[in-house]
Amino acid sequence: NKVDMTNSIEKKQEEERAQAQAEIDQFVSKCINNFNFFAHTCLSIKTKTEGLQQFQFNKAQQYLDKCVNDMLEKYGKVRIIIVKGRQQGLSTYVQARGYWKTSQHEGIHAYILTHEEAATKNLFAMAKRFHDHAPSDIRPFVKKSNRSELMFKELESDYAVGTAKTGDTGRSQTIQFFHGSEVAYWRAAEEISSGAMEGIPEAAGTESYLESTAAGFGGYFYTMWQNAVYPTEPPHGNWNGYIRVFIPWIWQLEYRAEVIGTMVLTEEEKTLVQTFGLDNEQIQFRRTKIAKMGNDTARFQRDYPLTSEEAFNSSLTNVLIQSQKVLKARAKGRLAYYQPIGNLVLGVDVAREGDDSTALVLRQGRIMHWYKRYNKLDNMEVAGIVINAIRQFRVDFVCIDSTGGYGAGVYDRMVELGYGQKVTAVNFASRAFNDEAYKNRRAEMWAGIAEWLDEGAQMPDKDEIQLDLCAVTYKHDSTGDRLQLESKAEMKKRGIKSPDIGDALALTFARPRVNLSGAGESIDPEQYFNEHG
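Below the sequence we write its predicted structure tokens.
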């Protein structure tokens, strides 16, 4: 009996050990295969106010995580570019994912590249913290550890950091996981892009993240952002393989301030409330931050953007069309605020060369109904698309950019097919109708957009429209009186694409406008005088 009892006890202990081991194996397996589980149960982060805490995703991190998983499912790899505000936790998310990849998987080389030494130290310290506080069951043995590298012996994986000082940084490496931090502030971004980033193979399971607060229009980071697409957009002809992720500051629950006394909103603040739903505590946070920044609203917009356009646009002071005006029109577009009145006018900006797009915009009075962009089309194909639009929407007038002869072929084809009554060729460089106020037709037509927005307008709620409209700067010519826009060539010198959608919208203002008292609608003067005498 004693022997049987002893055997029974040993058997039970063995079963308990087997059960415990099975639970450990299940836990380890889940950590390897499920990043969310790994992050929430195994990683500790240093919070702003409560010390070390288990890593729980905030709203910004949840959104980024969804974009990552969606891209993995669709493409089998991750390529994401992130425009963000200050301290929203996105670097923390990417760092956590990099540590997960290297500490739980074999043969992964993770490389993190920052803009300055202090940031490099901070991000590596975060990875060390992840490792030091991880459960022993999933913490791999460290073969090598120094100020810039963690090497895991059994996995043959490693996690390394560097600072973007020269173009040779990170060159000649094969990288399965890449995190570029504050890319807009890299000293040698173009060279690094052809060095370290070329070491990222286009293979399943590889991941690359480029994140930064914006540093104005132009430069490598802005160009990469322009050539990426939002998660809901189809890839275009110049797609670089990256998905855009933008995080507005109002997603951060802690970005609020106590309101003391009665709050009276400015007109700008009323627009923010209407467009983004800001409450009084968020308005107070914004006021306080701007005051601490010496009343520099542009700096606040860069560090705490509400839209990606606002983030990039914040460094410019001579923008013709301000972002708040476009935001109002986008908000009214969501509400279908205005009724369509007047002629349907189609603006057609024909692609010139390189990465330019052919853009079409259909406007009727206060309403920009829709826009289309096309890549790599010849003149006959563009003419066919324009004719289809005329027939589908019963367009009254078509204005085609003929500057430099690029759209002349489209115009000639339209005339040849019997559309001469509807189509007008417009040379951006030709003399303005109001020659005393504008350097040329292009400046006059863009001023027409600005006036249209002031009067009250609505448009599709799309960031790429806003990026185009708010990218163009202005000055006054040598007379000091006439408005002059920077040329497309000048824009490209500072790394900005041709504003194709903006130019197409401007072309809808090529015909002279008459503003009727009380209505403020854009109408065709010929039709008005024919009907009313």
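The chain has a mean pLDDT of 86.
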